[in-house]
Give the backbone structure.
Amino acid sequence: MSERDQRSRDHAPTEIETSSAPNEQLARSQSTLLVDTPRLNDEARHESAEELTRRGLLTKISLLGSAAIGAVVGIPIIGYLLGPLVKPTPSDWRNVGKVDDFSPGETKLVAFDDPSPLPWAGQTARLAAYIRREGQNDQFLAFAVNCTHLGCPVNWQPSSGIFICPCHGGVYYADGTVAAGPPPRRLFTYDTRVANGQVQLRATPLQTS
Amino acid sequence: MSTLDQPETEAQPKGRRGIGDHLYDWLDERMGLKDIILPVIVHPVPRKLNFWYVFGSATLAAFVVQVVTGVALAMTYVPSTSNAYQSLQFITHDAVLGRVVRGMHFWGASAMVIFIAIHTISVFLMGSFKYPREVNWLTGSFLLLMTLAMAFSGQLLRWDQTAYWSVGVAAAQAGKTPIIGNWLAQVVVAGQTIGGATLTRFFATHVFLIPAIMFLLVGLHLYLVVKDGVSELPVAGKPVRRATYRREYHRVLKEDGEPFFPDFIWKDVVFALLTVIVLLILAIWLGPPELDRPPDPTIIQAYPRPDWYFLPYFAVLALLPPAVENWVILGAPLLGGIIMLVVPFIANQGERAPSRRPWSVAIVIVFLAAALALGIAGDRAPWSPKIGEGQPGPIPPQLLVNTSPAAQHGAQVFQDKTCHSCHMLAGTGGERGPDLTHVGTRLTRDQLTWRILGGGNNMPAYGGNIDTNDLNDLLDFLQGLK
């Protein structure tokens, strides 16, 4: 085969069959799909296992280059998006009130600062928790306000001594254990301590399981 | 023949040529209007297509409405946790036509969900997903998923109390995934707590990421519609066979086809026009929903409920036995997705006509009936105790006529102990527990004592939460309810 024949063959159009075209418009639309498609299949057939042709090399360069572009751009972006998750878990102690603010046996809703607030967080930088003083001692329980079923905020009912979730009717006793409904486990808790006359709660990330 | 090989000029048309003709020729030479774009526009479709075929383009029309109104809203909306609520209030109440634009965006979301659901069901019922259109079913399935993702993320951008706590619900669901649950929940909230980064993550997802994916999928979907053709109406007794389908389809087009433009597209245009008119009327008449209170994590009086399209799922989560709940929360969406993906591969040949596919019809009927029943249940939410702002009023006075002072005190105990939030009395109160209007005729004093102190099913045990006097008075009250 002459070089000219080979070149002609390499650039022969790959024709899409038009014989079954249902009408002129379809035939016309299909005829427009005629393109100068290099015969990559033929080329690949000519390429032996040992032989690396110029076109094969260029194909590999194109594919690997595209993958590399994706990696170069994508890896920093993925790292950026997942960055907040790999930061050290904050667990700062937050004041939630003086010891005397809590009567024995009382459960009280308190607010505290998010463990890792962003400057523009606004009101969402303040979180809530229930604090319960156990007996006369300085022993305090701190409960997350989220129902362990699906995260809705539970409401403390002081007259009946239970927490009720408004979403699906989960109920918890005053000590956070499940009283009724779908919650799979007791209320999530925070560590507490008393320091300098202040009840403190250790703010931790969102607990879901 | 390459398009580049075509003659540079065609035969000169008769008559005088205006500037428009010259402009057209100029564009045609550079863009291939006649050779590439026009054949696509006028590609042949089967003649007897009915109005069921408009829901694909109607979904696209609703999507375009969402894009246009969304871009307009994004010019004012501030995706910051400290300002989003105020900016949305400004759009709704102060900006010129802001209420209308936000209203169209809100109702457009519902229209898109409805249209894509009808389109999916009609494609399924008419067997249009079979050979050679399997891949187009897959692209449509992903578009359905993306539409629902848009609906959910859009709800959160309202950034009111409901939206804030709904993020918590989404995180809690993600958190139920084994091993990586907590990590996944933190991906959802874009950090370790719901805070400053959460809203911007949802905003970027809603206005950039998902729409970009949808544009790609819509492009692929339309390309495949043109490539494989619009499916013809199914005929009972004419099954799809891979060996003969394309030849048969082309014969149908040749013998009884018509150009998509203008012979069919007028139906799409008319329906799309009706759609936008209805959306505009709804936006002017009803407007967008008012926002809940501003998001404040320290105010726990909130009742996060999804928009209507997720009410069936909301109901499922309430009605499931706890033992299987995690499996359903994680498994049901996964199973639904897998079913959508395998449908075109397990039944890509054979009969298309619904009359020959009773199981498919039955599946659709059961699915729709279940969605409707669960949606109604989700809207009523009888499982939700009436607490906070929705708590029931006082005990109906007719129940206290001729009762003893002890029973009257018992009625107050009933109220104080939150019993009324879960139990109905003469038409008032919650529906979570049984109606107690006539409980005195059903249960003895001992049985009532046992239920109150020991609890059971969905009722907490009040053994440690009620003193003897209150219990006796409560029993007097309940026994008198006959």
